[in-house]
Write a structure and sequence with these properties.
5-stranded mixed sheet; 482 residues; 15 strands; alpha+beta
Length: 482
């Protein structure tokens, strides 16, 4: 019978052949046997005699669309014909290891399933009728992804993985041009990054021209310690995020002021009425501060989300965007100035395409204005802008994306936007995993799901290489009730 089906199923073994093949519904049954041939003793060279056949039934293989393959293997046991030789042998199939129940096809299929970062080892294990430990081990044996080469523009940021109390934030390095993840380090601590970056040849590090990062000083200083030919770029998103954080704090202070007023009013009411009411619903002012902070925090171009008049049950009136603005602005005399000053920077941030000289001149004007203004948070903002002046100006560089990028031929500003988008993947993985303690597995799992055409090892690691032996004695196994 033709062996094309073995090639189709990736059950590679030139010494085997298909004896039978049948299909019933979504199940295909295949019987495979070793090709008949003369066998000779590996010790004395005498012919081996067959001592009968045996059958093996590996776990069913599952394909996309729930297609199931049931495989039956037929082999022989052999014994040396030389009465003075005790050599014995049993037929082995190349596509399944001795004493194992899964073919290499099943193993590769499970690894391919791991491309979906939303699937846990347990979910994949249930589908293939194996343990989640087996899935974990197979993946670790076949997948060990290397660092990609450094490029001229890289993004650096941390992501919260909480591997251990010491290593809470992993460091992610991205090729900004293509969006590929160059590598993930277990920590952003200097004790990790110093050895790592210094292990990369200096010639390769000198190819890096720009490092896009937030305002974390160690990242900015990478241009001095590791990438001496590069310039730091402070991501514009993080600058705006910084001032919005201060504005949010100010709004909360105003809200607490009204809540304190309401608390004192309630205490007086309880005293006058000899009552003991502990809490009442929010006052009108507190409700508006809780629900309309977008008036200060959002950019006006996003106010279209609040167009149209809608009935508000709490306020008992129809409210549109202008009503919310009017009500919110009336709650503190500084709100109008805060909005004006914030809008000045956001307007500046959206101008000066590839015009760093114009951006530098305007930034100097803003710093002078903020230093002399009457709002404390913007005087603090001026200090920040002065400190990161050059790296902020560097962010006003625009480049045309390569054809291989998803932003092909578009003019893009250097920013950490792609990195912020990627960070949702490891963050989501950490959440669904309910904690992470194996960094290497986590790193390879994330890279495997994100990289295109990521290779697997031609020669897989041994089980001993991927097992983490703790030295602790395993407790008694308690079989669960089913």
């Amino acid at each position: 019978m033709s062996n094309d089906i073995m090639d189709l199923l990736e059950l590679y073994d030139e010494d085997s052949e298909v004896l039978e093949s049948s299909t019933e519904g979504n199940k295909k049954s295949v019987t495979i046997s070793k090709v008949k041939r003369e066998m000779y003793c590996r010790i004395c060279g005498s012919r081996l005699h067959s001592k009968g056949t045996f059958t093996r039934h590996p776990n069913n293989q599952i394909f996309q669309g729930s297609f199931i393959l049931e495989v039956t293997l037929i082999g022989r046991r052999w014994e040396c014909s030389n009465p003075d030789c005790d050599y014995k042998e049993t037929d082995q199939f190349k596509f399944i290891q001795r004493y194992k129940h899964n073919t290499t096809f099943n193993d590769i299929s499970m690894i391919q399933e791991m491309k979906d970062i939303n699937l846990s080892c347990r979910q994949i294990a249930r589908r293939y009728n194996v343990s989640d430990t087996y899935v974990h081990t197979i993946f670790s044996r076949y997948v060990s992804l290397r660092r990609l080469p450094l490029t001229s523009i890289i993004s650096i940021d941390e992501v919260y993985l909480n591997i251990s109390p010491k290593f809470k934030y992993a460091l992610v390095i991205m090729d900004w041009t293509t969006g590929d993840i160059i590598d993930i380090l277990p920590s952003r601590r200097k004790e990790i990054t110093s050895d790592y970056f210094h292990s990369i040849p200096k010639e390769e590090r000198n190819q890096v021209l720009f490092i896009i990062c937030d305002m974390y000083d160690p990242y900015v200083n990478y241009t001095k310690s590791y990438f001496t030919k590069s310039k730091a770029i402070t991501d514009s998103f993080h600058v705006v995020k910084w001032i919005l954080h201060l504005i949010r704090i100010y709004i909360n202070q105003v809200k607490k002021r009204y809540q304190e007023r309401d608390r004192k009013a309630l205490e007086k009411k309880n005293h006058d009425n000899n009552s003991s009411i502990e809490k009442t619903k929010d006052s009108r002012e507190v409700y508006i501060l809780k629900n309309a902070d977008w008036v200060l925090l959002k950019n006006e171009k996003n106010f279209s989300d609040y167009k149209g008049r809608k009935w508000n049950h709490f306020l008992q009136q129809y409210m549109d965007r202008y009503d919310w603005e009017r009500e919110f602005m009336a709650l503190d005399p500084n709100f109008k100035k805060i909005k004006l000053y914030k809008d000045l920077y956001e307007t500046f941030n959206g101008q000066f395409v590839n015009n760093r000289e114009g951006a530098s001149e305007r930034l100097d004007e803003l710093i002078t204005f903020y230093k002399d203004c009457d709002i404390q948070i913007f005087r603090e903002f001026a200090v920040l802008l002065s400190k990161y002046h050059d790296s902020i100006i560097n962010s006003f560089r625009y480049v045309t994306a390569s054809e291989s990028s998803r932003y092909a031929n578009k003019l893009r500003r250097l920013s950490n936007g792609p990195m912020e988008s990627f960070n949702n993947i490891p963050s989501g993985y950490r959440t669904q995993s309910h904690g992470i303690d194996d960094f290497e597995f986590t790193r390879n799992r994330i890279l495997w799901s994100y990289r295109k055409d990521a290779p697997i090892l031609g020669v897989p690691k041994s089980a001993a290489e991927v097992h983490n032996y703790t030295g602790k004695k395993r407790g008694a196994y308690k079989k669960g009730k089913h």
